[in-house]
Amino acid sequence: MEASGWSTSLSSGIVLSLVAVVWTMLWNNLQGLQLQQFVSRHLSRHARRLAAIVDPYLTVTIAEYDGGRMKRSDAYKEVQAYLQRATCATGGGVRHLKAETAKDVDALVLSMGDNEEVADAFRGATVWWLAYSTPPREDNAPSYWGGGRAARADRRFYRLFFLERHRDLVLGEYLPHVRREGRAVMVKNRQRKLFTNLSGDGYDADGMWSESVWSHVVFEHPKTFATLAMDPAKKKEVIDDLDAFRKGKDYYARVGKAWKRGYLLYGPPGTGKSTMIAAMANHLDYDVYDIELTSVRTNTDLRKLFIETTSKSIIVIEDIDCSLDLTRARKKKKKANDDGQKNDGDKKDGAEPPDEEKDAGGSKVTLSGVLNFIDGLWSACGGERIIVFTTNHVEKLDPALIRRGRMDKHIEMSYCCFEAFKLLAKVYLDVESHHLFDAVESLLREANMTPADVAENLTPKSVDDDADSCLAELVKELEKAKKKVLAKKEGKGKDVADGADDDDDDE
């Protein structure tokens, strides 16, 4: 009996051991098959089917920003423009509206506020648009643009609701229709703008946080090529070049170049470089982005500025030689600083720090960063952009900055010529001929006077001033300018002669 019981107990232990081994192997295999996830997916599938019976609506969400807030979504702007028209058409369907200025000074562009809903009909289907926003997470993590997330603006969205049976119609036809119509509304309501970059900390002039890196006003500069004082042949050359660029989308695509063009405007102060930019913008109907390089902290920030510019725009950096150390002398200065640091390695406490240490809190934009801004990989984002540099001292700029391919067209803005004077006389005095014109023409060949100075002398200062008095005043000023030129030449000649005499004395 004892032997039989011991045998039975041994058999039971073996069976249990085998069961444990089999169960362990089976359990490991079941885990490998991710049984829990399989069951979860199966249940979720049935739950969605049940939810579709209870709630037959599908949704499409369109966020304001793409690419981690690097660029405002084109789709969002088009939907917003489309719904501005839909909001006006629905009358009292929306209770809370937002108003913005329109092209007409007495009109307003209306759009629905947050948590408002507007219905739209399309080929027998009714859809609903909801505008809403969500606050940012309140944590201390650094944001993409700088600062804490708690300081950032709300995230804004549009959400489209429609019945599931209209899925193909809405996704295949309605949404493309909305984008096309939205673009048309944007063109109709478009106001050209003059942009300037915000400070590096992301706050505007009022100390308010801004999601955009740009602030703007309406561009209302009246200057056109018709009133620009410039040599007519050179002016026509510039106009033809701009027209060719505007129509050159297919050409740029065919040759494999980004659809952009660089212009370098150089010449003495007062020769019309800024007004040339205004005339270009008015001729092309482009926005203007005026970049203040000294307020751009790093090359990365400069890249962000470019990404947020739109197509059909002119990007301007005025007085490029004064904005940053981008001149030919920068390498010599760096070498001199490096040599100075080596020689003064044991300098005493309290000595003057090098310039780089002084400017540690300022802009760290480099020549390499500017070059990449002009024609690097990121410069191909978008299209139909013109980049303009202005300078009073073109000879100081690094050749790499202004070579062809970066600054494709170099335009010299020189002193006033007789043809430019005649245009100014017509614009300011409404005269096309006068007995003093011959004297002005003769003096302009020998005197250096900018178009701005000529225009100032032609401007009537009182109700008693007429064409005779204004032209006489201009002749008087031109004679003074001629004397200055002659005196300068005589001074240079004297210096040369003195130098020759010194050489003779040395011999």
TrEMBL record:
<dbReference type="InterPro" id="IPR027417">
    <property type="entry name" value="P-loop_NTPase"/>
</dbReference>
<dbReference type="InterPro" id="IPR050747">
    <property type="entry name" value="Mitochondrial_chaperone_BCS1"/>
</dbReference>
<keyword id="KW-0460">Magnesium</keyword>
<keyword id="KW-0067">ATP-binding</keyword>
<feature type="region of interest" description="Disordered">
    <location>
        <begin position="484"/>
        <end position="507"/>
    </location>
</feature>
<dbReference type="Pfam" id="PF00004">
    <property type="entry name" value="AAA"/>
</dbReference>
<dbReference type="GO" id="GO:0005524">
    <property type="term" value="F:ATP binding"/>
</dbReference>
<dbReference type="Pfam" id="PF25568">
    <property type="entry name" value="AAA_lid_At3g28540"/>
</dbReference>
<keyword id="KW-0472">Membrane</keyword>
<dbReference type="InterPro" id="IPR058017">
    <property type="entry name" value="At3g28540-like_C"/>
</dbReference>
<dbReference type="GO" id="GO:0006950">
    <property type="term" value="P:response to stress"/>
</dbReference>
<dbReference type="InterPro" id="IPR003593">
    <property type="entry name" value="AAA+_ATPase"/>
</dbReference>
<dbReference type="InterPro" id="IPR003960">
    <property type="entry name" value="ATPase_AAA_CS"/>
</dbReference>
<keyword id="KW-1133">Transmembrane helix</keyword>
<dbReference type="GO" id="GO:0016887">
    <property type="term" value="F:ATP hydrolysis activity"/>
</dbReference>
<feature type="compositionally biased region" description="Acidic residues">
    <location>
        <begin position="498"/>
        <end position="507"/>
    </location>
</feature>
<feature type="domain" description="AAA+ ATPase">
    <location>
        <begin position="259"/>
        <end position="417"/>
    </location>
</feature>
<dbReference type="InterPro" id="IPR025753">
    <property type="entry name" value="AAA_N_dom"/>
</dbReference>
<comment type="similarity">
    <text>Belongs to the AAA ATPase family. BCS1 subfamily.</text>
</comment>
<keyword id="KW-0547">Nucleotide-binding</keyword>
<feature type="region of interest" description="Disordered">
    <location>
        <begin position="333"/>
        <end position="363"/>
    </location>
</feature>
<dbReference type="InterPro" id="IPR003959">
    <property type="entry name" value="ATPase_AAA_core"/>
</dbReference>
<keyword id="KW-0812">Transmembrane</keyword>
<protein>
    <recommendedName>
        <fullName>AAA+ ATPase domain-containing protein</fullName>
    </recommendedName>
</protein>
<dbReference type="Pfam" id="PF14363">
    <property type="entry name" value="AAA_assoc"/>
</dbReference>
<feature type="compositionally biased region" description="Basic and acidic residues">
    <location>
        <begin position="336"/>
        <end position="351"/>
    </location>
</feature>
<feature type="compositionally biased region" description="Basic and acidic residues">
    <location>
        <begin position="487"/>
        <end position="497"/>
    </location>
</feature>
<feature type="transmembrane region" description="Helical">
    <location>
        <begin position="6"/>
        <end position="27"/>
    </location>
</feature>
